[in-house]
Amino acid sequence: MSDIQNAKNLVRSYYAELDSVAPEGIAHTIGRHTPDAYHWRGFHPFDDLHGADSVARAFWKPFRTAFTRMQRRQDIFIGGRNQIDGFKSVWVASMGHLMGLFDASWLGIQPTGKMAFLRYCEFNRVQDGRITETAMYFDIPHLMMQAGLRPFPPQTAAHLVQPGPMTHDGLLFDAQMPETGEATLALINAMISDLGQWQLGLPLEEELARTWTDDMIWWGPAGIGATYTIERYAKQHSAPFRAGFTDRSGTGHLCRMAEGNYGGFFGWPNFIATPTGGFMGMPATRTPGEFRVIDMYRREGDKLAENWIFIDLLHFWKQQGVDILARTANLPTT
């Protein structure tokens, strides 16, 4: 537990420095907390980056220049050991929004001069007092929508500025009882076993009810949206998603962990599937595509109650020959 607490404290200190330093000092700040071989994974158009200078130059400095007076508004903060490597490595996850005044163009998205929110989730591996790996996933299409753009056809569910947990207890800065996190991880694993291959053989709603509360909330990304209750989740996302794909690969995660009533995972990619038409209003391509995903969960009793999803839809559709960012971002905002 001391290793996990030390890792959480290190990441909190890192965030405090990173979020307050001027854009010109970001590379130095990242370098003080990371080794030369630091590996950063981000959604399209950033992908794999290596070293503090590359991460600062490609992502953080342009973003902080565009989003003045930035605040990090965390909703979930947990630490834990990674099941995928036999619980050897220690990771810290943070989820929430980066909010600021959108005052300059970013990725071709024109500024609004108003508050804007970049929905994010980040996993950091901590080793020997440094952050050695980061997976930082964010919802760029949601930002585009805030700027008046329409990157995708009408979605099947609702998308809003996603709130944090209904229970408002997701910031686990203090140490937690290990047994609570173990129960959460076991439930997440049971859900993955049930749903991961789409082969359980039960009616979808019965399948979901094995591991989800009836009033579950699935906080999906822009382009898909959020949905509430098992019945509406099945109707508004899960069933259309399964119908729109074939040849789904097995599930591959780089980190899966839990602490307290919260847990999650990420992959690079999590799985590969072939679109057969209909998903997000797009035609079939028959081209296998990668899904880079972070999932974060809240457990309530013996069921999962809330799930926050980050999917790199820009990367997925670019593999299908549609560059959503390039074709949409430079259009005038409304």
SSE topology:
Elements: H1 2-20, H2 26-33, E1 39-42, E2 47-50, H3 52-66, E3 67-81, E4 90-102, E5 115-127, E6 130-138, H4 140-146, H5 178-195, H6 204-209, E7 212-219, E8 227-228, H7 230-243, E9 245-246, E10 255-259, E11 262-266, E12 271-275, E13 289-291, E14 293-300, E15 303-311, H8 313-319, H9 324-328
Parallel strand pairs: 1-6, 7-15
Antiparallel strand pairs: 1-2, 3-4, 4-5, 5-6, 7-8, 9-12, 10-11, 11-14, 12-13, 14-15
Report on the structure:
By secondary structure, this protein is of the alpha+beta class. The chain is built from 9 helices and 15 strands. It has a 6-stranded mixed β-sheet. Strand 14 and strand 15 (303-311) form a beta hairpin. Helix 2 packs across helix 3 (52-66). The longest helix is centred in the N-terminal third of the chain and has 19 residues, at 2-20. The radius of gyration is 19 Å and the shape is globular. The relative contact order is 0.15. The mean pLDDT is 93.
Shape: globular
Per DSSP E runs of 2 or more residues, the count of β-strands stands at: 15
Low-confidence stretches: none
**How many alpha or pi helices?**
9
Our measurement of the CA-to-CA distance between the termini, rounded to an integer number of angstroms, reads: 50 Å
Give the DSSP E fraction (strand runs of 2 or more residues). Answer: 25-35%
Main sheet record = 6 strands, mixed
- Following the backbone from N to C, one meets helices and strands in this order, namely HHEEHEEEEHHHEEHEEEEEEEHH
Structural class: alpha+beta
Whole-angstrom Rg: 19 Å
